[in-house]
Amino acid sequence: MELKQAMIIIITGMLGTVGFSALFRCDKRRVACNALGGALTCLVYVLCCSFIDNLFWQNFFPALFATAYAETMARAMKAPATPILACSIISLVPGSKLYYTTYYLVTSEDELFHSTLIETLLIAAGLAVGIICISVVVHEINRHKFKQILDVE
Amino acid sequence: MQKTDERYSEKVLSLALDLGKNMVKCGAEMNRVEETVIRIGYAYGMEKTEVFSIISVIYATVIDKDNRTQSQLRRIRSMSVNFEKLEKLNDLSRRICKNKPDLDEARQELESICVPGKKFNIAVCLGYMLASASFAVFFGGNLLDAAASMPIAAMIYLMQSFIKTVGASRLFFTALESAVAGLAALVFVHFGFGNNADIIMIGDIMLLIPGLMLINSLREMLCGDMMSGLLRMLESVLLAMAIAVGFALPILFWDFIV
Asked: Across chain A, how many H-helices and E-strands are there?
């Protein structure tokens, strides 16, 4: 990937994150944190794209990074992690693939439709698995704490 | 004495559930809501708090120290993502668990957080426009495409805030919003405002895609809340399909119109 193209992706990814922070009505103090998350996630994505030639892994690692970032920042700022994650990861959501899947379906180009559909699902799966891998760890730690508070079992 | 006690557990339960309901409305995942309800019951000295929730219902029972039970149910009919409010609610619940303030005081604070906001929020509208323009460029468009996607984004925002008040079927209206956005993109490009109709549409698709819903569903399934997680995942897949159908219509019929 060219440097110019990579810069465009990182900068617009960051701006998109800022837009989504407003769309989700985030606290104003969190916007900078979200924007940084969005930019870094795009950076990881660009790096993955230039080293890995596989849609699943290209999206898995940025998702992994975004979740780790969101959980860390959430701890540091004593805020919930979901808003930071939802804003940071938004630029990886396969909106364009969804469009082309629809487009090829409508124009009855079956082969292209099948391949883009599978690409869309691969990207979604990569994101989902990436998010889950980090969340599992965090969840297990939290559950342990929660159990101690409630004094159950 | 006994009577006041009964009122006490009822008040605790109703505070916990109202807080939970508002959290769901702001876009929280269900396990966070269940945890909050349980923690509040615990903080106010209930012997046991049991809660069950799926995406549009929270049902909880508390048992107080004298073994009396109280049950209440909350139904959630509409939601609009508002993370600032969610964070305030989260803080409130944290403070309740830590300081155990007077019930009326906590209730007042809850109500001061949950005042309905303005119908039209200019910052949110600008957020829609910025996001769509950024993603138009992100996916390979030029600046004219970005400019063309902005009025469509504002239109989507207006439609969404109007439809929230009507409370009609979300799938149908998502498809309708997508169809209007797609048609607008094609019309803009037809009259020379924007170069690539597909890029403009993609910028606006990003606004409609249920990304947050998918994240929440993953987290819910992870926390053992299979039912909410699966329902939400199904809902987000259906929404994605509705978006696809909505954008397919103008593409399909554009040749007949022009």
From this structure: 6, 0
Sequence-separated (6 or more) residues with CB below 8 Å from residue B145:
B136, B137, B194, B195, B196, B199, B200, B203
Number of domains in chain A: 1
B194: left (phi over 0), alpha (psi -120 to 50) or beta: left
* pLDDT tens for each residue of B180-211: 999 999 999 999 888 888 999 999 999 998 88
CB B154, CB B125: distance < 8 Å: yes
Q: Is B226 on the interface with A (CB under 8 A)?
A: no
Chain A residues in contact with B130 by the CB 8 A cut-off are 15-16, 18-19, 22
Residues within 8 A of A (CB atoms), B 146-185 only: none
Structural domain of residue A46, as residue ranges?
3-150
Asked if A136 lies within 8 A of B222 by C-beta distance, the reply is yes
Does this complex have an ipTM over 0.95? no
pTM of the model: 0.87
- Reference A139, options B29, B147, B110; nearest CA is B29
